[in-house]
Amino acid sequence: RVGAGPLDELLRRARGGGGGNGGGFGGLPGMPNGNRMWLLIVAALVVIWLGFTSIHAIGPRERGVVTLVGRYAYTLGPGIQFTLPEPFQSVQTINVGNIRTENFPASGENLMLTGDQNIVDLAYSVRWDIRSAPDFAFQLDNPQETVRATSESAMRAVIANTTLNEAIGDGRAKIEAQVQTAIQQVLDEYHSGIRI
């Protein structure tokens, strides 16, 4: 070719045309073949994908809820666990050892009517944890709000059958036991996986 300079020669080699030394990626010396380079990149991406979606570190206070194509499959215990890669299987890690506390009222007053027609301002706490990770993951849309609504409803129902003297005196232990039983019963009916 007339007038072919060093730039033309470099472009021709980059397109893979033309000998010279090397014959590697784009004809540049020391670089692997173009097809081989793509194979290495794809292999590296597959290894990274498998590593991130198949290997799971589950803590001692955690459980891994495994779904197979969107449906519950099984639960992983603590330790390094292996599953099929996503999207075939996915894992939701749930802390079952953490004790959560709901304080009532969140702010302001919490007035309730007693059985003898008196009004009391009650402040109380409800502590709960998770006893079944799969139920907790799938049965309730918003577990915390369900616990709060159920707790408030149960407390109002028990106080409505309690006298003022019992509510502010030595009847507190009895009230606590009744409220706990009532909350737990409702949550069990929902198969919530929550323990009060």
Structure description:
- This protein has 6 helices and 10 strands, in the order H-H-E-E-E-E-E-E-E-E-E-H-H-H-H-E.
- With 196 residues, the protein is of the alpha+beta class.
- Strands 3-2-5 form a 3-stranded antiparallel β-sheet. A 3-stranded antiparallel β-sheet has the order 6-9-10. A two-stranded antiparallel sheet has the order 1-4.
- Helix 4 (143-159) packs across helix 6.
- The chain starts with 5 loop residues before the first helix and ends with a strand.
Which features characterize this protein?
single chain; three-stranded antiparallel beta sheet; elongated; alpha+beta; 196 residues; 6 helices
Write the layout of secondary structure elements.
Elements: H1 6-14, H2 34-54, E1 55-58, E2 62-68, E3 71-76, E4 79-82, E5 89-95, E6 100-104, E7 111-113, E8 119-121, E9 124-130, H3 133-138, H4 143-159, H5 164-168, H6 172-189, E10 194-195
Helix pairs in contact: 4-6
Helix content: 25-40%
Question: Quick one: overall form?
Answer: elongated
Order of helix and strand elements from N to C terminus:
HHEEEEEEEEEHHHHE
Describe the biggest sheet?
Answer: 3 strands, antiparallel
Based on helices, strands and strand pairing, what is the structural class?
alpha+beta
Q: Biggest sheet, strands in spatial order?
A: 3-2-5
The count of helical stretches stands at 6
Mean pLDDT: 88
Unreliable parts: 19-28
End-to-end Cα distance, whole Å, is 86 Å
Number of beta-strand segments:
10
In terms of DSSP E residues, the strand content is 15-25%
| Radius of gyration of CA atoms, rounded to a whole number | 32 Å
